[in-house]
Sequence to fold (374 residues):
Amino acid sequence: MNSMEVTMWMLNSTALSMSSSRSYERLHEIEKDLAIVIPVKTKRLRLLEGVLCGIPHACLPIILSNSKNDPIDRFRMEQSMVDTFCRYAKKKYIIAHQRSPEIARMFREGGYPHLLDGDGLVRNGKAEGMLAGIALANMAGKKYVGFIDSDNYFPGAVFEYVRIFSAGLSQGKTPYSMVRIQWHSKPKIVDTELFFAKWGRVSRITNQFLNLFLSHFTGYETEVLRTGNAGEHALSMPLALALDYSTGFSVETYHFVSLMEKFGGALPAPFPEIMKSGVEIFQMESRNPHLHEVTKGGDHINEMIEYSLSVLWHPTICPASLKKDIATELQQLKIIRKNEEPVKLRQYPVLAGIDFEAAARTIDWPLYGNFVPA
Ligand code: GDD
Fold:
């Protein structure tokens, strides 16, 4: 990592105390240029509405849905709720279905077929929805893009996440910055009592192996990485367009692999100007507890662990000793068998490869809500 300037900020502060050192005007400036992408797949409407409520007025919400439209058209219900909310709140918004022919056409005409499946539609998956959100945010003229899951119970926590995004992004000294949220706690009920857990099973394992990955390049053992699975994160647009991405729930862990490969000096730099300028990563802790809908069981947890570790296992820059440790961990968890390799996940090249002018020509903005680009 000799030539990479990765600045890790471990801040134990709330967004509000951050904003005492960043002027309200500065945060507002960032938020005017910030799109918040909300990926949603068949979650309760009331939860999505709460998330919308928490987003500061200046930000542009972009809802990327992969919700069912059969037997009930959940996407139409989402559209209707979002439209009503935003009409009363006098708020601009964009909403699109990830599997719609229009979104597929945008990528096809933009010369980016990688996201499309055999039916010519954008593939299923959270990352795939996020990538469609980044493309729309860029065409909407936004300079920053953040991500918040649709199933957060507390609008106040959502508000705090966005304030943390703007507080972090406002400190960027280069055009290439990322803010990743570390939750203060994730409450659970244990023996009828509330327990404010700090780490989940997935994040504990992902962070442990990510830190080993980083230690290999620096030669120093570290525990600096704490946000390997940060679903809530934000990026400056130039960085969002310059990273490679990995499918589904592996997307957040893979950010670090892409950063190392492209700007860390581990491989020849495809964007030397970014490497020279440096990339900043702000890991910032929120103060609100993170409470979200839990509808999936152990299989989902195991899949998330496998996805997070497999994106570390496969790259050529992963040292043999770490590969061995990852395989042992996955075997102990009975996720893979002895001598079996972790699953190889689909990856997507940089979105900077999209011809955005051609893609924008396909967009009929009124179809996506009430936003009209300047
Ligand atoms: N557009 C779209 N397409 N959205 C999706 C899809 C999809 O195929 N699959 C899931 N989503 C949405 C969900 O509706 C939710 O808003 C968000 O993506 C996260 O999905 P969950 O299924 O709720 O994920 P999780 O709670 O297990 O994991 C989340 O937190 C992890 C950190 O603990 C995700 O954000 C992970 O990526 C993150 O690592």
The mean pLDDT is 92.
